[in-house]
């Protein structure tokens, strides 16, 4: 199963900058009919509207505020592809005094946010023929980096949820894609100290379009991600993506 983005209506969370902006640009370049730029402040999407005109419609989504997600699902009732890109990162080890506070915040956005988006938009995608749900996870979902322990834990949890959503949503014909970037040249990556090794966010945007068309479940868009993905390939194919009996 593959999914062609051309002519489709797409919603991207965290669309105003970084990877989110690159995803908006990629899907528009490949023929998406309309993009809902889902952001915490609709004013932040004005540059996208100025550049792309009526093909971009700002909509409010704050992953910590369930009511904004529900309202967006009602407003974007024609959406066929949902890309949940928005996320947060705290620099925190497991031994830091504020580790539990940071972990709770990252889970609120990176994990609970995903569940809220899936619950709100799954019926919309079903009503519009199935479509696709794309979740931005990370190489950090598979390996823990001590300075970012709490972030890695949240991404491991979001990846687990994404695997379950793949099984749950296939019954309604919704394709699910789990995206695992390494260091990407964004504000978040710069704040994490990755500026010397970061690669362009366009790799993620273009990669998503190609992975959806190919019907893939995993996407490893950049150099570090490809290295991790290659090492993980056997487990992914024989366990995560395999039809194993449970119970």
From TrEMBL:
Keyword terms of this UniProt record: Oxidoreductase
Cited SUPFAM superfamilies: NAD(P)-binding Rossmann-fold domains
UniProt keyword Transmembrane present: no
Tagged with keyword Oxidoreductase: yes
All copies of domain Ketoreductase, residue ranges: 8-187
EC top class, as a word: oxidoreductase
InterPro entries in UniProt: KR_dom, NAD(P)-bd_dom_sf, Sc_DH/Rdtase_CS, SDR_fam
Coiled-coil residue spans: none
MF-aspect GO terms: 3-oxoacyl-[acyl-carrier-protein] reductase (NADPH) activity
Catalytic activity, EC: 1.1.1.100
NCBIfam families documented for this protein: PRK08264.1-6
Record-stated family: Belongs to the short-chain dehydrogenases/reductases (SDR) family.
PANTHER family attached to this UniProt entry: NADPH-DEPENDENT 1-ACYLDIHYDROXYACETONE PHOSPHATE REDUCTASE
Protein name in the entry: 3-oxoacyl-[acyl-carrier-protein] reductase FabG
